[in-house]
Amino acid sequence: MEKTLNDLQRRTDTLIATYLLITAGLVLWFHQRVPHWKTYVVVHLLVSVLIFSLRFVSGRSQSLTRALGTKRPSPLQFLRDWYPVLGFPLFYKEVAVFAASFGNRGFSEPIRELEAELFRGHPSIYLSERFAWVPLSEYLHFCYFFYVLLFPTVGGYWYFTRKMGAFRELLFLVCLTYSVSYLFFMLFPVDSPFYLFPPPGEPIAGHFFYQVVHFVSGRGGARGGAFPSSHVSVGVVVWTLTWLRQRRLAYLLSPIIAGLILATVYGRFHYALDTIAGLGVGGMIVGIYIALKRGD
Fold it and tell me: Please, are residues 77 and 58 in contact by the beta-carbon 8 Å criterion?
């Protein structure tokens, strides 16, 4: 069991370091278009080295913890377990810079045209107009906001109740989902309706969770990071693994994940096609992982 846990942790470290090296390579390749490109390259390389240094040091610390007979993780082990949760929001802010510097925006217009053709307009516009009900809007905006708490809540619950297999499995799959999504955002950026269309108006505008979500999205968003929706793909990954690991918890999460998926379109944060693609990416990542796990 311990070997499996360590393997999952090493895979997560390697995945994040690989993501950093790939993005550093892209910045080097397109350096003439990237402002402060040397800083990005140096920081990415340095963080990659720190990840592997942390692996070595925390491994020694973990051995000492076991020798002392203590079950609590050491501070270094805690840092190694949780650093990706702090890292990926920072990586997301880079997406806007890299997408603007070397992304191929030729993908944006076909998405909008196909959306309008398939759905007779843009659901991200007409859903909130046809169903302008404040309780529905507030619930959906709450679910959209809960996305930022999704991994800390589920992962934190498993971590502090010592379900380490579930925690590390979830961490690896979420990091994989973010890595795939962010690389696609950089190379094929699509601006979301949040940046192109006016926000939903009265009567749903101005209420608590509406305000909170628009405040966070306005300061924490990244132009180009629309297709596929990482909100949806991460939600699918978290819910599916929860369903496999702890079904009662999955039942509790179900209305929140369903609301999150609907909120991406209702709140004009994503096109419907972004949401469909996010469902596909999340399902594919979990499906491949489960198939490979069964084959071991």
Answer: yes
Query: What pLDDT is stored for residue 65 in this prediction?
Result: 47
Supply the pLDDT for residue 48: 93
Q: Report the alpha-carbon distance of residue 79 to residue 8 in Å, rounded.
A: 16
What residue spans of 30-133 are helical by DSSP H?
37-68, 75-102, 108-119, 123-130
Across the chain, how many H-helices and E-strands are there?
12, 0
**Which residue has tokens 């749903």?**
204
Angle formed by the axes of helices 272-295 and 108-119, nearest 10°: 100
How many residues can be counted in the chain? 296
Q: What tokens does 2 get? A: 């311990």
DSSP classification of residue 60: H
- Rounded to an integer, what distance in angstroms lies between the CA atom of residue 47 and that of residue 98? 18
Report residue 55 CA to chain centroid gap. Answer: 23
> What is the predicted pLDDT for the residue at 54?
80
Burial class (CB in 10 A: 0-12, 13-18, 19+), 163: middle
Contact 205, 136 (CB under 8 A): no
Which residue ranges in the chain fall short of pLDDT 50?
A: 61, 64-69
What does the radius of gyration of the chain's CA atoms come to, in whole angstroms?
20
Distances (CA, A) of 194 to 207, 245, 295: 18, 35, 42
Tell me the pLDDT tens digit for each residue of 219-238: 877 888 889 999 999 999 99
Cis omega (within 30 of 0) for bond into 228: yes
Mapped onto helix, strand or coil, the DSSP state of residue 190 is strand
Helix (H, G, I), strand (E, B) or coil at 225: strand
Helix, strand, coil percent values for the chain (each to nearest 5): 80, 0, 20
**Lookup result for tokens 């499906």:** 287
Measured CA to CA, the distance from residue 100 to residue 161 in angstroms comes to 43
Q: What values do phi and psi take at 190, rounded to 5?
A: -130, 125
34, 98 contact by CB (below 8 A): yes
